[in-house]
Amino acid sequence: ARASLGLAVQSLGGSVMADASAPSMAETTTISNAVYWAMLSLGAANLLPWLSFLTLADYFLDIYGDNSMEFYFPAVSTTVLVGAATLNLLYGQALSFDVRVRVPTFVMAASLLAVPLVDLAMRAGLASRFGFAITLVSVLVNAFCSAVAQSSLYGLAALFGDGATQALQSGQGVMGVVSVLLRVVSNVVLAGRPSTSMFAFCSCGSALLAGSVAAYARAVCDDSVAARLAAYERRRLSATATATAGALDQMLLPAEGRPAPSRWLSASEVWLESLSAFLVFVTCLACFPGLATSLTSPTLGSWFPLLMVAAYNCGDLFGKTLPARARLVSRRSLPAWVSAHLLFVPLFLLLLRAPAGRGGASDALPLGCTFVLGVSTGYIGCMALVLVGEHAGSAEEKELWGTASSFSLMLGLTAGSLLSFALSAAFASPS
């Protein structure tokens, strides 16, 4: 009954435009439509490995005989995410964006094929325990590469300026919904053939990841951003050439010659937005898939998990696109919105302790709450990330701030995943 409820976990974060009622916090920069769509493609592709493993929960249940992968996968992924994001935050600026985006994306494309290769090996006689272990290694590799690429893309988006972060997160929202639809189609068309469905799903995902590298190449060459990126790279190379611990700090030296702040002091400029992103995603992961995995439907049966996934992903996508039409959150009001978002934890605990219903309204309630959770996570998380890019600062500071906020997001994923285990153990109904 706990299959596949983790699908939407990584469809997190969001994007919006600047508050029309507030003064601009940074110089206005505009990206072209080509860059916007390229960044949207990169955001969607970066989410693919996570979504692929989660939407294959029915396949893993069939081949391994239980749903252990559902628990091991989030634990391994989120732990690796934090480690990789920490390394990227500390040392990422020593490497070019080409290295931090192209290389891990190609590795993800290759490692996603581990699942069908393991399937073939198990058909040839490989023990299931070894197949499970190899799959988890693939999860680890994908999580590491995804974290490096994603945090680098956030830094790149902050450097590019207006609209780039929105494009990244909109791409993730779209992919969350599309992945559910693809999985539904594959399950219906290839009913009774989970291995064939898995082969098709993983192959398409790997091809899309490889293709997203072309989108990256198109984005960095576009006239609207090429000059900014080239200037950043010249300063980065000049700083790293000294090979000293303080070199990267000197990249933050203001034009007027004031003493450069430390990297940590510079990152503290966006502490409120980073803390907000952390709390938003802690709450989301604690509720979904955490507490939601204990909810069942006697009438919808095995379709209930997929409907829960669809409810969250549709809400998340709506939350990410809504702010472009209605900007409601500013830096001043952000703490109030985040505080309200925290109330989802007791709400889902109440759903968990409620007596099981027999369909109808009892099914609609958890589905509706999950949809609203998606809207709230997409909208408030989106604002926390985009507000980071509205701070005035140098290109290097913006890149650092984008990376730092992405690190907070991933730390929230890990903390929320651990909290969900504790809450489920403490409050799950004894049934």
How much of the sequence is in beta strands? under 5%
Determine the mean pLDDT: 78
- Our measurement of the CA-to-CA distance between the termini, rounded to an integer number of angstroms, reads 12 Å
Instruction: Report the uncertain regions.
Output: 1-28, 243-248, 255-260
Spatial shape? globular
Q: What's the helix count?
A: 17
Number of strands: 0
Radius of gyration: 21 Å
Main pleated-sheet profile:
none
Helix/strand-derived category reads: mainly alpha
Query: What fraction, in percent, of the residue positions are helical?
Result: over 70%
Structure description:
It is built from 17 helices and no strands. It is mainly alpha-helical and 431 residues long. Mean pLDDT is 78; it is low at 1-28, 243-248 and 255-260. 52% of the residues are buried.
